[in-house]
Structure formats: C-alpha cells, structure tokens
Amino acid sequence: VSTQSTGATSSARPPPKTLLELHQQQQAAAPTAGECTVPDEDEEVSNHFKDIPIDFLAKIQGVLLNNGADIANSLDVSNFDLKVLEHGLVLKGYRADVVHTLLAQWKNAIDEQIEQQRRIQAEIDAAAAAAEAAFEAAEAARRAREANDAAEAARLTQLAEQARIRAESERRKRARRPRWRCAICGRMGCQVAPYIEGYDTIDY
After folding, report:
1. What is the CB-side half-sphere exposure of residue 45 using CA atoms within 13 A?
2. Per-residue pLDDT tens for 91-132?
3. pLDDT digits (tens, 9 = 90+) for 127-161
4. How far apart are CA 172 and CA 159, in angstroms?
5. Beta-bridge partners for 199
6. d(C-alpha 154, C-alpha 79), whole Å
7. Beta carbons of 118 and 158 less than 8 angstroms apart
C-alpha cells in the first residue's frame, strides 16, 4: 500500500503567508493516513489514523526516532512525553496550536488502537485455550473408551462435546488474525500509525 504523496499544489496558488496557511495547504495537498485503509472486516476499525495528515504523522515518527523512542513498542510510543513531541514538531514548522490539536488527535488514535490490539489478542488467546481444552477432553474420552470403561467414557464424551462447542464458539469470535502495517513507513510492527492491512486465518 503506497503511503507517499502524489499530489502537488497548483502553481496558481499564492504562496502561504503564515505557518497556519502553509499547514492548511499541505493538508489539502497531502494524502491522509486514510488512503492506506482496506475495507473493514468483522466490523473492526481498520485505521484509527485516517483523518490525520500523513505528513504530520511522518514528522511525529521523525521526532520519536530522533529522541530514541522504540517505535516498535506500543507503550513506548503511547507514553512518550507529549511536551517533547510538541516542541519537536514546532521546530519542524508547525504552529503550536496546530500541533496541540493534531497531537491530541494522534494520541487518542494511538490509545484506541492499542486497546483494539489488546482485545484482539485476548480473543485469540481465549480461542487457543478453548481449542486446547477441547483436544484434551477428546483425548481423555478416547483413553476411557480404550480402557473399556463405558460409564467414564460416556461422561467424558459428553464433556468433550461441550468443550468442542465452546471452542467452536470462541473460534468464530476470532477466526482471523489482523496484519498491522504502519501507514508512514510501511513496516509491520511499527506502532506510530498502524492500520489493518488484511487478515490471516488462524489454525487453532
């Protein structure tokens, strides 16, 4: 998915007189992270950063890297000092009020995306645990049948069926794992502006 700007400002447009006008012209000409989205699947938000100018997101990434942040660590990115970020972005040519507004929007998007990742991983873990429990229950029933213990085999078979139903229910909740890719650098694992590129089926 391309994240590079292909637009250009019109030669007839007068040059900006203020940094705010410059930002407004850049925002009108540059793509947003929303252009990196894919169709939503499972009614999930595929891109929390779609309304933020992509040039602004790129500068956030630059400030984070210049200050030694681990951009592959979601908590390191989310907990980075916003005052340091604001200062770095102002030095890159943005007005302080513009930085404050867009940075608050980015921080909210980061927190929502981290919570989404946490919820998805919890669903995957629950489905995996249910699948393991169903397998163990089925194995216990098989061993009882091989031991010719009819009563125990009947009891364990019933438990195994209940476990299988639970496992199937959990699997339907999370049958696919999302692939996250950064809208800025295109790397998988970068946490500055991750969006869902697509899904892979999970083999529980």
Report:
1. 16
2. 999 999 999 999 999 999 999 999 999 999 999 999 999 999
3. 999 999 999 999 999 999 999 999 999 999 999 99
4. 20
5. 178
6. 54
7. no
Cα separation of 200 and 124, whole Å?
12
Phi and psi (nearest 5°) for 19? Answer: -65, -30
Closest by Cα among 40, 42, 44, 43 to 172: 42
Of residues 15, 26, 34, the one with CA closest to residue 55: 26
Contact (CB, 8 A) for 197 and 38: yes
Which positions ≥6 away from 44 have C-beta within 8 Å?
116, 120, 178, 196
Q: Which residues of 179-200 are buried (b: 16+ CB within 10 A; e: fewer)?
A: ebbbbbbeeeebbbbbbbbebe
User: Could you give the angle at which helices 19-29 and 96-146 cross, rounded to 10 degrees?
Assistant: 40
CB 57 within 8 A of CB 106: yes
How many Cα neighbours within 13 Å face the side chain of 179? 11
Of the candidates 166, 180, 178, 179, which has an alpha carbon nearest to the alpha carbon of residue 127?
Answer: 166
